[in-house]
Amino acid sequence: MATVGDSPSESSFSSHQPEVLVLGGMQSLEVVGESRHQDALWHIVGEHPGGPDRIRQNVIAILRPDPNNPYDEYAVDVVVTDHRVGHLSREDAADLQHAIVRLERQHGRSIGLRGVIAGGGRRANGPGQLGVFLSYDPTDFGLPPTAVDDSATPRPGRRSVRTGLSVAASTDREDSRYDLSWVDGLAGDSVRRIGQVRKLLGIETHPIDRHFMFAQLEKDLYYCRDTFESALTEYDEVCVLHDSEMDAIRAGLVEKFGKVPMLETYRQMCIRQQKAKAWDSGLLWAERGIALYGSEAANGEWVTDLADRATRFRQKIAEGVGA
Deepest in the core among 3, 45, 194, 300, taking most CB within 10 A? Predict the structure, then answer.
């Protein structure tokens, strides 16, 4: 742990927060919602959108709990030089908010993480957007480590992965096998993104790009389940399509990361089938996810979760319950 200004190495990071406890770590922590804060991000990097060069600037980001947020009581904002630039995902915020508050009280200062603002450059559809990529150590927040064995295909700066999107985006420029620049052009609301991503899936062929497109489409359709009547039906259809390509996708993910990142599709579909009391279908989704992870899951807890669900489905089938 270090306080901003304690170490000469801090001079390469931007921060207007003199009383910040900066935590270390090499695991990626995803920031979401940056598309709504592009003006602030461009102000921070001191550039104008539309320039020819892509941006990569080291920063210190403050994690600011927002328990009064009307949409998510566990919300955690991400702030750089007094500018809100995004927030943690609901899942990460729920895991971290209480620990952040505890650390703030314990040390009497804000909690910060090292990160990078990256992106920009010229795109066919206009200036590329900027994104925020953070690194952390889960154990600093009382969470178990989720280490990835890097021995298969080591790369400089390689980090542990969850979904893999942050790591893939941060190394997009150096990896010509895929191009995640499409993320920069996505709309700020779920309904518009659904149409955009469907069009992208109609023309994109690379497995890694298609994987993250499917994942984005599933996320937005599920989010819109109360917005339009067909959302959940469309969600189920997209999950089936996603799964139909997963053998090729898995090969691409293992080549990229050396492990299989989180495959949220299978856990969420198990939950869907459980709510519908469709035990046979739930068992198929659980077993399929377990098979795809195999022995190469980045976090064994994901496999354990599916195995537990499979056991419960088998019990319900044997008991003849519901269905």
Answer: 194
- Taking every pair of Cα atoms in the chain, the longest distance, rounded to a whole number of angstroms, is 66
Residue 240: inside a domain: no
H-helix or E-strand spanning residue 107: helix 90-107
Find the domain containing 270 and state its range: 262-323
Structural domain includes residue 272: yes
Q: How far is the C-alpha of 60 from the C-alpha of 20, rounded, in Å? A: 9
Q: What does residue 206 show for φ and ψ, rounded to 5 degrees?
A: -70, 135
pLDDT tens-digit series, residues 253-286: 998 888 999 899 999 999 889 888 899 999 999 9
Q: Residues 149, 154, 156, CA angle at the centre, nearest 5°?
A: 120
Q: Is 194's pLDDT higher than 50? A: yes
Instruction: Please return the burial class of 78, using the count of CB atoms within 10 Å of its CB with bins 0-12, 13-18 and 19+.
Output: buried
| Cβ contacts of 250 within 8 Å, gap of 6 or more | 260, 292
- The dihedrals phi and psi of 19, each to the nearest 5 degrees, come to -115, 70
Question: How many C-beta atoms lie closer than 10 Å to residue 88's C-beta?
Answer: 26
Concatenated DSSP letters of 242-283: HHHTHHHHHHHHHHHHSSB---HHHHHHHHHHHHTT-HHHHH
Tokens of 258: 């050396």
pLDDT (tens digit per residue) in 197-215? 999 999 888 899 899 999 9
Q: Which of 145, 164, 183 is the last residue of a domain?
A: 145
- What is the total count of domains within the chain? 2
Terminal-to-terminal C-alpha distance of the chain: 53
Non-local CB neighbours of 78 within 8 Å, separated by 6+ positions: 31, 61, 62, 63, 64, 84, 85, 86, 87, 88, 132, 134
Closest CA to 14 of 47, 49, 54, 61: 61
Q: Is the pTM of this model over 0.85?
A: no
Looking at residue 177, its pLDDT comes to 66
